[in-house]
Amino acid sequence: MILATSELEQMFLAELTAELGRPATIVGIDEVGRGALAGPVAVGAVLLTTDTGPAPEGLADSKLLRPAKREQLVTEIHRWTPGVVGYGSVQDINEHGIMGGLRAAGMAALAQLPVTPDLVLLDGSANWLAGPDLFAGDLPPVKTIIKGDQQCTIIAAASIIAKVERDRVMSELDGSDSYSWKSNKGYASPAHVDALTRLGPHRHHRTAWHLPGVRHE
Fold this sequence. Notes:
By secondary structure, the chain is an alpha/beta fold. It is built from 8 helices and 5 strands; from the N terminus they run αββαβαββααααα. The chain has a single domain, classed as 2-Layer Sandwich (Nucleotidyltransferase, domain 5).
């Protein structure tokens, strides 16, 4: 397993501090639930400043970690530095598409942070935080980082807290037992698709999508 490192984020932090003439603040952002058939999309945001201590050991892409390890790391992350999770609702996704849902979640996460960052490090190659829709708002500069959850501890940490929180939400949604959301977290498992075929979509499904097992006129 590839563990996240801190060199790249520390480089950005040092460069910004020198440029601004004051201690800089950066935030790592990652999303969870983009490809699910049901439930909200979640975006984690984790803060890093010049005063932040060393990251917890073992940070990595949340998908590569066992659930018990993710739960352990969430506790350590919150002791280490501020980390928050924002959500884009099923309604956001159905009305504005997955990018609109991601922007809603990302802006909600940024709004919860104690300070406005000088730079956002965003996992992936596309800046889905920026856009012309009503969720765009005022954004700090954004730098996309391909495989960011391998290259930045704060992006890996963001993916972990978002994964743990969204998994908990999916397990507690009404309809979870019928569609096996406790195990599949809203993704297209055989049990989930079978339930869609038998029961049709629930109010928590992304009905604007072409859902498997559902007849679309």
